Amino acid sequence: MKAPGDLVVHDLHAWQGHTPVLKGVGFEVGVGQTVALLGRNGSGRSTTAQALMGLVRAQGQVLWRGQNWVGQATHTIARAGLGYVPEHKDIFPGLSVQENLTLGLRPSAERRYWDWDIGFAHFPLLAERRQTPAGRLSGGEQQMLTLCRTLMGNPDIVLLDEPTEGLAPHMVEQVARCCQTLQREGVGLLLIEHKRHIAWRLAQRVLVLGQGRIVFDGTPHELDQSHHTRQQWLEA
Q1: How far is CA 207 from CA 65, 112, 151, 200, 211, in A?
Q2: pTM for this prediction
Q3: Could you tell me what percent of the chain has a pLDDT over 90?
Q4: What's the rounded Cα separation, in Å, for the pair 70 and 52?
Q5: Per the domain annotation, does 47 fall within a domain?
Q6: Would the pLDDT of 111 be above 60?
Q7: What is the rounded CA–CA span in Å between residue 11 and residue 60?
């Protein structure tokens, strides 16, 4: 039985410009569940997140909290509690770290409440650089800033597109621990990766995209046992 906070995607089609990318994608992210979305470059992983956030033209159903969010404005979707951490750093380089975080701050009526203390506790490097212009941060630090700013909005479900790509190992561990905290708090996660960086440590379910369609939906163990799926849709 589905909970009111479950995200249910059905027959989702999406385009990048005039090019069709998603061709009838369907899946679910339950309350407190972590789902990994894998696939080769060009399979439609990032387009999936962009379609859910209203950033590309899409048709189909994205059902959440009793309504279909396809066609809604991005800021409306975000304010409703769907968080998005894009693959490419999304910061305001001329603003300080703390000013960037302020832009994402949205107090939650639920028991969760990400604020300065919680955010800086999870990302101590950002605390050290709170007055530094974001444009002066390293690429890894900017990625952490993007993640932390999204979490300052206290989302109920978070879409993380390649959250550890290019990060040093100690930063990868910080992101993994942060995701584990979100899991304990009951936040749903859609973890999008090209290679299996932290997905196997966190995900209860794995989806594999191939040519704009879901070609596998199962547990990490089941994917490990599926040599055909891994070879055809994941392994270069």
Answers
A1: 23, 28, 24, 12, 13
A2: 0.90
A3: 54
A4: 7
A5: yes
A6: no
A7: 5
